[in-house]
Design goal:
The protein is of the alpha/beta class. The protein is built from nine helices and nine strands.
């Protein structure tokens, strides 16, 4: 894959429109909601990782599950060479609109590709991944010897005000097999993914990432764009899931109609031995 340089009072607002899209057909709109509403919530995480690893002109950064590519844009702004993988076409198109080089998925060769990178990030993919081990193995395969892989996950649920809101996804998914987004938040869970991939731990950190929205509708749209609620929508229906989300967000509504939830994310730095 080629890489490229690219340069107090709880109230319910009146008159707010409800966003009750249907799954599948709504994916382009969901992708835009991710890019325009939700993606910026993780900027503190991206910046903390890039600061720690001194990402700059000597860096080649690959984003696995890069979605619409904001993390890659930030790395490119530091002078890094950047590229991405994103399985969803509608998100790839948004990343390409940002002049990022993004492909659909893994390369077929089992060998280390010539386009291996000094840093491979997995910022958003793990919390909803059906097989986190395979994601980490692919990240390791695409990392140069002596390079780094960064894995990210939600912090402890007791430190994340979004936890009870995300629980709507679990409660309404029935028996569809929806994954708990906090599954990898327990101590040692991320570290356990490293040995099978031939990686070794090289540090970790926690970053505050508040989820702040101008209104309730934006909060619902932003959270739905994460993809974590798709099994619930398939099982219970999109309209009902959106309604339950609105209810779950009530404790975080402010007097001006905005919504804010304090959250912590954790990242793990792993090194691929030479």
């Amino acid at each position: 894959m080629a890489s490229a340089r690219t340069t107090g009072t709880t109230v319910r607002p009146t008159g707010a429109r409800s966003h009750h899209p249907q799954p599948g057909a709504a994916r382009p709109a969901r992708a835009r909601d991710w890019a325009e509403i939700q993606e910026r919530m993780l900027v503190p995480l991206y910046e903390a990782v890039y600061d720690r690893l001194e990402v700059g002109p000597a860096s080649s950064v690959l984003g696995l599950g890069c979605r619409s590519g904001l993390a890659l844009l930030l790395a490119a702004g530091r002078g890094a060479q950047v590229a991405g993988q994103e399985p969803r076409e509608e998100l790839r198109e948004l990343a390409r609109d940002r002049r990022l080089r993004v492909c659909a998925g893994p390369q077929p060769s089992a060998a280390v590709p010539r386009s291996a990178h000094s840093l491979v990030t997995v910022f958003e993919q793990l919390p909803g991944a059906a097989d986190p081990c395979s994601v980490v193995a692919e990240a390791a395969r695409l990392t140069l010897p002596g390079g780094y892989v960064v894995l990210a996950a939600w912090g402890p649920p007791e430190r994340c005000e979004s936890a009870p809101v995300l629980d709507v996804a679990r409660r309404m998914a029935g028996r569809t097999g929806a994954r708990d987004p906090f599954e990898l938040s327990v101590p040692g869970a991320l570290e356990d993914l490293l040995p099978p991939a031939g990686l070794r731990p090289a540090g970790s950190g926690r970053v505050s990432c508040p989820f702040a929205y101008p209104d309730l509708d934006s909060a619902v749209r932003g959270l739905l764009s994460t993809g974590l609620f798709e099994p619930a929508e398939e099982f219970s229906g999109a309209s009902l899931v959106a309604k339950e989300l609105e209810e779950a967000l009530q404790p975080y509504l402010r007097a001006d109609g905005s919504v804010r939830m304090e959250n912590v994310f954790r990242y793990l730095v792993a090194e691929r031995p030479r």
